[in-house]
Amino acid sequence: MLNWLEMPSLKLIAVDIDGTLLNSASGISETNLRALAEAHQAGVHVVLATGRRHAFALPIARLLGFEPFIISSNGALSHDPCGKLLAMTLMSREIARAVLDQMQSWTNAAVLTFNRAGTGALVVESRAELVGRIARWVESNLEYILEVKPIQEALVEDPIQTMFCGTISEMREAVSQLKRGVVSGSVSIHVTQYDDRDLCIFDVLPPGCTKGHALAAVCESLDIRREEVLAVGDNYNDREMLEFAGHAFVVANAHEDMKGMGWQVTRSNDEDGVAHAIALALEPTAVRA
Q1: pLDDT tier at 8, thresholds 50, 70, 90
Q2: For residues 108 and 43, what is the distance between their CA atoms, to the nearest angstrom?
Q3: CA atoms within 13 A on the CB side of 283
Q4: What's the burial of 136, exposed, middle or buried (CB within 10 Å: 0-12/13-18/19+)?
Q5: In which band, very low, low, confident or very high, does the pLDDT at 196 lie, cut at 50, 70 and 90?
């Protein structure tokens, strides 16, 4: 059991889900579960901060055994432990349409996310096309996916975000194309890259909409200073969250770029990296020895 009396100034722990809290078998280790449960019992707020949409993050939150805060869609939505919506930032449908028009050659790799329940929460042009890119995601979200072609016709209301996915080389070209366009100054781009799977996903959101921005807002509502925050992540879309936190860690399986940005490196997601980061923060000398 960790000694929480060693660091009474730690008041909030923010953890990314995929590649950080979840191991390579898509589960949460007992050691990580126990560390987060002890933090919760000690009165420390726990936040899951993810690129997943809220409904897709909920099954992971339920594995914790207590109700955490959830920051979803890379900062577009924030919910408190009771499930109350704290904040939501939507893209204007006009900007989303401009993005899709500019990225016309990539619309078969696009997903629109809406703040809806059931079918239509996610809109794609072709499920079959997406299966070839992110088969596990399609299978997990099948009941929510609606096919609309052209996808622009689905923009009857403001979406939460637009997502594109494909190989690393494909998405590198797609991001470059988007940044060269006229709408680039009207959006923010959040990249998640998995080198071992040759998979890259990037989310297009309103400017300034990040995990870090959402985490700062949650902390302000709780009167928590950034020096009292510990954050653990693994990928580019965690950058602003890690920059905000006073105690920032990346897991050992993080992208090499992330490990070169000066944050402490904890163990990998398959070696209880979240629990080890908490232990390093609470008892740095003893753990490192």
Answers
A1: low
A2: 46
A3: 11
A4: exposed
A5: confident
Q: What strands lie across the sheet with 77-79, from one edge to the other? A: 85-88, 77-79, 69-72, 45-49, 12-15, 229-233, 247-250, 264-265
Rounded Cα distance, 1 and 62, in Å: 22
Predicted local confidence at residue 7, as pLDDT: 57
Contact by Cβ (8 Å): 103, 109 = no
Checking if the pLDDT of 105 tops 50, the result is: yes
pLDDT class for 133, splitting at 50, 70, 90?
confident
- Euclidean distance between CA atoms 205 and 155, whole angstroms: 15
Residue 214 CA, chain-centre distance (Å), reads 11
Q: State pLDDT tens for residues 202-261.
A: 999 999 999 999 999 999 999 999 999 999 999 999 999 999 999 999 999 998 889 989
Q: What are φ and ψ of residue 265, in 5° steps?
A: -105, 125
Examine residue 59 and say whether the peptide bond preceding it is cis (omega within 30 degrees of 0). no
pLDDT at 67 over 60: yes
Contact 242, 262 (CB under 8 A): no
Q: What DSSP string describes 74-140?
A: GGTEEE-TT--EEEE-PPPHHHHHHHHHHTGGGGGGEEEE-S-SSTTSEEES-HHHHHHHHHHHHHH
194 to 19, 200, 213: CA distances (angstroms):
9, 6, 24
CA distance 202 to 193: 8
Asked if 54 and 72 touch (Cβ cutoff 8 Å), the reply is yes
DSSP code of residue 16: -
